[in-house]
Amino acid sequence: MSFAVFCFTAFTEGKISATSNITGILITPIQKGTTGVAGFVDNIYGYLYRYDSLQEENKKLKEELQDTKNKLQSAQEAAEENTHLRELLGLKQKNKSFDLEMAEIIASSTGNWNTALTIDKGSLSGIKVNDCVITEDGMVGYISEVGTTFSEVVTVIDPTMQAGAIVSRTRDVAVAQGSFDLMDQGMLKLSYIKKDSDIMEGDTVETSGLGGVFPKGIIIGTVQKILPEPHGISNYAVIKPAVNLNKISKVFIVKSFKITE
Amino acid sequence: MRYTRENYIKWSSYSILMILLYLLQTSYSLGFSIFGTKPDLFPFFVASLALLEGPSCAAVLGFFSGLFLDMTIPGLDGFFPFYYIVFGIVSGLFSGKYFRKNILAALVLGAAASIGQNLLKYFFYYALFYQVPLITGLRIMAVELIVSVFFSPLVYLGVKLVNKHFAEEED
Q: pTM here?
């Protein structure tokens, strides 16, 4: 039998022999399957092996990303601090007699009867009641209550706030005060304006320094409109605060200043 | 009151809820308000406690809530702790007899606390010292009440969750 197979194979030179062909036909699917399984196993092994290295790489990348984020945040904080220090320097250069303390706003008041802010500096930092609170743009308010490490700031639009004011252009003296009717619009009132006064929309209002409570020349806001008082004797102006009270994070407290009336 | 471990955890949970409420209300960066009107949720917190836990819990946590509020509202030192102690006791005793323990009762009690607190503030402080017209005062009170009632179910649910959890554990 084997001799017959040998002779059959010997006379089919150059072609795949019938026996090889039959064996091949039978074995190819098995080989294919085996190769497939081997490849699959190899893939799994490779995947598992690479998974570890990928995980490690991922971890490393995450660490690098976090590190970069931290650096970016530090840079942003430094830039922000730089801006505030420049403001402080600017304020100090403009008002050489001011003893300023920088503070951060940590909370706002609850309820709708007042608009007060809480700052992170108190008596430990030398803050006192009635100290004026400002930013580079103008007046924020004044200190109404002092704790050891925090203080309450009554803002310029609060109805309990009153400050001697002067209109920069006309030099008209008046009183800037908060009003319950204007508080929710974020405005305040400039009261006791003479009927014949030349005050116009857009005029700047600043502190007069009269009485010596607040320093002179701190911008309070700009005139939006002028209306007659209900009693008809004088006018009042609606003032838009120079400082956006909803968008400040750091303020300066004027701890002492030279009184110039 | 039994001084069990569960009680300590329950009181701590209420205290954390109170602090969260305070932080939410006073957060400067969050600016928690609707059209410029800030909700006052503490009356609803004390009312929910009075309804679900009784007068003693409402009075104690009301006192501390008042102390927190004193820190952020200038000119009214001592008013809030006193008001919330009295309100906690009265509403706790009253609701125990006449109210069912549900959200509607909490809203009614909370609204009563809010109105009472604002009327006292108005007549004994703002009208007296700042001559605020009644119509202006009423407008502030009404708008604040509406905004507060809108958020108050969240406060009730917070208190209810803690209350329910520990009531089940006691059973």
A: 0.71
| CA–CA min distance B62, chain A (Å) | 16
Which candidate from B72, B140, B144 shows the least CB-CB separation from A107?
A: B72
The ipTM assigned to this model is 0.78
DSSP annotation string for chain B? ----HHHHHHHHHHHHHHHHHHHHHH-TTTT--BTTBPP--HHHHHHHHHHHH-HHHHHHHHHHHHHHHHHHSTT-TTHHHHHHHHHHHHHHHHHHHH--SSHHHHHHHHHHHHHHHHHHHIIIIIHHHH---HHHHHHHHHHHHHHHHHHHHHHHHHHHHHHHHHHHHH-
pLDDT digits (tens, 9 = 90+) for B83-133: 999 999 999 998 888 888 889 999 999 999 999 999 998 999 888 888 888
What CATH code is carried by the domain that includes residue B38? 1.10.1760.20
List the CATH code of the domain at A100-256: 2.40.10.350
In angstroms, how far is CA A92 from the centroid of its own chain?
A: 25
Closest CA to A160 of B82, B121, B78: B121
**B142: which chain A residues are within 8 Å (Cβ-Cβ)?**
none
The domain locations on chain A are 18-94, 100-256
Structural domain harbouring B72: 5-170
Question: How many distinct structural domains can be found in chain B?
Answer: 1
